Amino acid sequence: MSIGAWTFLLVGASFALYIGVAIWSRARSTADFFVASGDVPPVLNGMATAADWMSAASFISMAGLISFMGYDGSVYLMGWTGGYVLLALLVAPYLRKFGQFTVPDFVGDRYESRVARVVAVGCAIFISFTYVAGQMRGVGIVFSRFLDVEIETGVVVGMAIVFFYAVLGGMKGITYTQVAQYCVLIFSYLVPAIFISILMTGHVVPQIGFGSTLSDGSGVALLDRLDQLSTELGFVAFTQGTKSTLDVFFITAALMVGTAGLPHVIVRFYTVNRVSAARSSAGWALVFIAILYTTAPAVAAFARTNLLQTVPGRPYAELPEWVHNWNRIGLIDFEDHDGDGVVRYVGPAGEGRNELTIDRDIMVLANPEIADLPAWVVGLVAAGALAAALSTAAGLLLVISSAVAHDLLKKSFRPDISEGAELLAARIAAGVAVVVAGYFGIRPPGFVAQVVAFAFGLAAASIFPAVTLGIFSKKMNAPGAIAGMLAGIGFTAAYIIYFKFVAPATNTPEHWLFGISPEGIGTLGMVLNFVVAYAVAARTSPPSAHSLDLVERVRSP
Fold first, then answer.
1. Is the dihedral of CA 386, 442, 370, 219 positive or negative?
2. Cα–Cα distance between 243 and 227 in angstroms, integer?
3. Do 393 and 131 touch, CB atoms closer than 8 A?
4. Contact by Cβ (8 Å): 155, 143
């Protein structure tokens, strides 16, 4: 069968599985809708958390980033996985001890302030929409390439699927659907990686193949060959870093702290029945995440090596079919500067004119085609990419719907609302959020991992300080928490918007504040949040006795 036929078959089968699971586990109460009634087993919750968190950025874009950035791409590996250590130790058990449904719930009750709750809701919604933009872009890319439809059509189909199981099943439906999606995405990621590792190095395990010699009889290590190919073409060596140490630190810290502050990840720890189960869930999630994250560098190296060995120096008309397929949808662009029809790259020592521009988001999706793997493997990767994007999109949409229905209506403006009306409001909010997310998928503000990195920075600068101070500081009060959140998210968002959208021409190290890139500015935003929060708290009334009792209860074993 053709690639298109295999893709239709495997994507259709996976969608049928998700819909079936959603119908079986549909929500029948607000507890089902918001926290799956708090009785999800830790192993399954860890698997669902991994799927919720390993978005299109992890599946589609991270290996692409590493493939293009080389050593510098390691910040995403260190930051995103390291964040789970913070999450397991500093956040998850305490919020589970607190109970309730959402992060704004904790902020509102801990600081005894409706304003604090509303600010936390605003931060959660802003972060979630920033994050979901990357997921819907991933959906559009997969559909447009492998199902041969317009990106707009692909996004609409993805919206319909997410709407069905998010609105019908709520957190309960999403949780068990995400378990199925994790199985699909990890299988889809590992199969081509194993195939290519065997072909290139003779090793079944990609992580071992990554550090091994090539099986072509040359005796050259994979990374040495990749460095050689890169430098011969004028690129920086794959294993050589170019970012400043300060920027690497700030990006890694923003991703780590942002992981522990993402509302759609934190809410997963309300779905287990006790504190020990929350810790166990975080541990299992880290195991399931590590399977993909330790494979990603190998996938990146395999893809880039094959790319550099097969494309440069050849006539464009004679390049493999996959190049022309991706060119047709605009994700590969060939500009023949010298008019000879041959693909060339003139590095920094020459004219600096690259004739072939490849969107980094396609590297994982195109990897099986670059390595000339069977058509069914290509279709399998497409199904896995959709699973990754849709699982995270569903979790984010639930955060948005619960923030509107539970935190704004039930806890802020309509405390007398019935359970049925609250559930209806949550479903309506989820439906509206799906439409907005679809718009971002059609008109994305950047490539997948870039947009997601911004969401982590925003979470680091706003929600993480408010939550950790609420747990560990008895001096922190509502005015301090509110001022800190507003200062942190305002500064971080303004910095990102300025350099990425207002004045992108100035988005260079010499123009950045202290040399910190927009991807890492969330760390500085977090520091600003802490400083402003403590400064305001020191000049305003201390927390009430009830608030201090809540801190003691949450922190007690």
1. negative
2. 17
3. no
4. yes
Angstrom distance (rounded) from CA 111 to CA 476:
8
User: How many angstroms separate the CA atoms of 66 and 70, rounded?
Assistant: 5
Closest alpha carbon to 253 in 506, 509, 516, 52: 516
Nearest to 117 by CA among 134, 104, 131: 104
**What own/partner pairs with CB < 8 Å and gap ≥ 24 does 149-156 have?**
151/329, 151/441, 151/442, 152/442, 155/438, 155/441, 155/442, 156/438
| pLDDT attached to residue 166 | 64
Q: What is the pLDDT of residue 29?
A: 57
**Secondary structure of residue 133 in the 3-state scheme:** helix
Domain contains 124: yes
| Res 350: pLDDT | 47
DSSP class per residue in 145-177: HHS---HHHHHHHHHHHHHHHHHHHHHHHHHHH
pLDDT at 173: 67
Is the four-CA dihedral 390, 395, 396, 397 of positive or negative sign?
positive
Cα 391 to Cα 388: distance, rounded to the nearest angstrom = 5
pLDDT the model gives residue 529: 94
Beta bridge partners of 333: 357
Query: Long-range pairs for 335-339 at CB < 8 Å and ≥24 separation?
Result: none
Instruction: Give the pLDDT score at 353.
Output: 62
Tokens (6 digits) for 304: 């880039």
505 sits in which H/E element = none
pLDDT value for 324 = 83
CA distances 149 to 8, 15, 56, 257, 320, Å, are 12, 17, 19, 38, 21
Residues 352-390 have pLDDT tens digits of: 566 777 877 778 888 888 888 888 888 888 888 877 777
DSSP H or E stretch at residue 332: strand 332-334
How far apart CA 351 and CA 317 sit, in angstroms, is 24
Provide φ and ψ at 295, rounded to 5°: -85, -30
Locate the DSSP E strands across 91-230.
none
Phi (first) and psi of residue 333, to 5 degrees: -130, 130
* CB-based contacts of 113, cutoff 8 Å, min separation 6: 478, 481, 482
The domain spanning residue 430 has which CATH number? 1.20.1730.10
**According to the model, what pLDDT value does residue 198 have?**
92
In a domain, 238, yes or no: yes
pLDDT digits (tens, 9 = 90+) for 256-294: 888 777 766 777 776 676 777 777 787 888 888 888 888
Task: State the amino acid at position 434 in one-letter form.
Answer: V
Q: 363 lies in a domain? A: no
Q: How many residues does the chain have?
A: 557
Q: How many domains does the chain have?
A: 1
Q: Which residues of the chain carry a pLDDT beneath 50?
A: 349-350, 447-449
Its domain, for residue 211, covers 3-305+368-555
Q: Within 10 Å of residue 115's Cβ, how many Cβ atoms?
A: 14
Question: Dihedral of the CA atoms 50, 70, 504, 363 (nearest 10)?
Answer: -60
In a domain, residue 126? The reply is yes
For the chain, give the longest Cα–Cα distance.
Answer: 78
